[in-house]
Structure formats: C-alpha cells, structure tokens
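Supplementary Methods S3. Complex input for the protoporphyrin IX containing FE-bound model.
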Amino acid sequence: MQPSTQWQETVAPDENVRFEAYAEELHQLQLKNAGKGKPSRALHAKGMPGLEATFTVHADLPDAVRIGLFANPGSYRAFVRFSNGSGAHQHDRKPDIRGIAVKILGVTGRKIIPGMEDALTQDFLMIRSAATPVRNAEEFMALVRVASSPLSGLPGLLRQVGLRRLLDLLRRAAKTLKPVASLATTRFYSALPIQFGPYAVHYALRPNSLPEPGDCPGGNPDYLARDLAERLRRTPVSFDFQVQFYVDPVKTPIEDASVEWREEDAPFITLGHLTFAQQDMERPAAQRLSAFIETLSFDPWHALTEFRPLGNMMRARNVAYRVSTQARAAAAEPNGDEFFD
Ligand code: HEM
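Predicted complex, serialized as structure tokens:
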C-alpha cells in the first residue's frame, strides 16, 4: 500500500482577509441568535447530551497509516458532542446538517495552533454527507445567509453564482439536510481533507448499529437525543473510524469541497473504533459530564501537526472557530483529569 504524496493546496494570497470577514459575519449571527442571552455556538448550536467514549486504535495497521495517534495500538478516552448544524436551537425534524465532534484525550505530540502546541487533544469533526453542496467557504457563507434569512440570502446567492448554480446548490443542499431517524445508525464524514503525515485523507465514522424496524424521524423536538439515550440504555453503540487516501486532483480534489471522494476511487480503511458504553444517560454524573462537554471547543485545528487540515474551507474554519469559541467563552482544552462519575 503506497498512497500518493502528490496532493497540493492552492492558497489565494488575499484569502485570509475574506476568512476574517466570514468569521465576523458568523459572530454577528451568533450574537443575533443569542438575543439578550449568553451566546451559543455560531453554528451547530443545538447539542445532544455530550458523552464520553473510548477511541481504540487497532493493532496490525499497515505501515503507511501508522502515523501520529495511529502509530501504536491503544485506547483513549474521548469527549463527544452530536449536534444539529443550525445556529438556532430547533426541532430535530427540521431540515439541517447533523454533526459529530470527537475530542480524543491524552494525545501527546506537537499540536498546530500557536500557543496550544502542548495541548493533549486531537479533534475530529464530521457531518452526515461525504461532500458539501458548496465548493468553498464563499459559497458556504452564501448558504449560511440563505438558511438564516432566506428573503435577503437567496437574491444574494443568485447574484453571486447565477441561476443554474443556484438551483444545483439548492438541490444538493436539500439532499444533505434530510432528517435522520437515529444518530447511532448515521454515517459521518469529514467531507474535507486533512494531512496524514506525507499523505492526505478524508476521515469518517461508519456505524455498527443497524436501523431498527419502524425507525423514522420522531415527533418530539429532541427525538435524536431520546433515541440515543434509549439505545444506550439497552446496548453499547460503536462506529468504525476510517480514512480514505488522496488519489489525484480530479477524483479527490483538495480545494473543491463539493466533489465526493468516491469509495470506488478511494476505498476506506478502518484504523480504529469509537465506542459508547451501555449506560443511563440520565444519571447525575452523565448530566454533569454533558454540561461540561457543552462548554468545550471542538475545532478541526485542534490537531497534531501530522494531521493539518487542508483546503479552502478548512483554512476558513481556522479563523471562524476561534472567534466563535472566544465569544462564548469556551472552556480550555481538557487535560484528561476531568472525571464525573
Ligand atoms: C465539511 C465542512 C464542515 C464540517 C464537517 C463542520 C462540522 C462542524 C461541527 C461538527 C461543529 C460542531 C462542533 C461542536 O459540537 O462543538 C461545527 C461548529 C462550527 N462550525 Fe463547522 N463544519 C464545517 C464547515 C464549516 C465552515 C466552512 C465554517 C466557517 C467558515 C464553519 C464554522 C463553524 C463554527 C463557527 C462552529 C461553532 C464553533 C464553536 O463555537 O465551537 N464550519 N462545525
């Protein structure tokens, strides 16, 4: 197995100015959604109860993938937050992105963000679609504007991309926003690349739980959290952690987030798994843990230098997440001493 090392980023000289403006725009949205209350996350404001999980790195991995956290087999504690994508708290049935943010604890090695080089965390953030409807951060922000105020957002998007692309974007967005029946049976994808040592990969979580007869989006506004709690009361829930390697600039582009890295071109390899133990999510310790997880900052740039995020949208996120987390006074990175039972 010898993955390609020929991937390349294309960085526009003036892009950071635009990324700072996007971060500020998201910050304004965050303040607007908060009203007179305390700001939540600028996006993915509604979290399901946060959970602890175990992240296990498999033994006998091929040499090419034994990088960073995956160099040696082992088990790590992880804090996990499932979420809906909107900046507003709304019914789980509303068309929306679904997210999962995984923070692995006790990860040694140099981290990317200046001032946080010695942090002991590695974050992986995913959504339920393998690609995004948008090509880049500019289109992403246009869609955020449409979602937050359709009346002014739609004409703006039409001016920006033209009618044909607008219809294509809305059709693709509608596909990724469908309600899901259960988070435990949903497949989650990074949808964007990260460096993996000398290589570039997309990563993903593949659920091991099977849909149950009669599963369908529920009527309760918080049915996703209820479904998860109900499943965990009966059984553990686990996902395989997988990566797929960059192949070439057409099949697996680095800068264009709208192109799915298809499994036929770039097969997934399983490196480990994420397991939630069978538990009662209503016990007081679980609720204390969940409240703590809500205060944390999950950020794709909380990462080992070997796992540097790549591409236009990832670079835009490098500005936006820090602004959002500062505005809501998020907690410092955990050092692994946090226990709630
Ligand atoms: C495929 C692309 C993306 C994925 C997979 C993704 C995923 C996520 C997830 C899972 C969260 C919730 C984190 C949590 O639970 O704390 C989140 C939050 C957020 N995302 Fe993204 N996102 C993407 C693109 C973007 C882009 C392009 C921007 C902005 C330019 C952005 C801005 C934000 C912000 C501001 C937050 C809130 C951060 C906080 O306050 O903690 N995201 N994203």
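The first helix runs from residue 15 to 34. The first strand starts at residue 51 and ends at 57.
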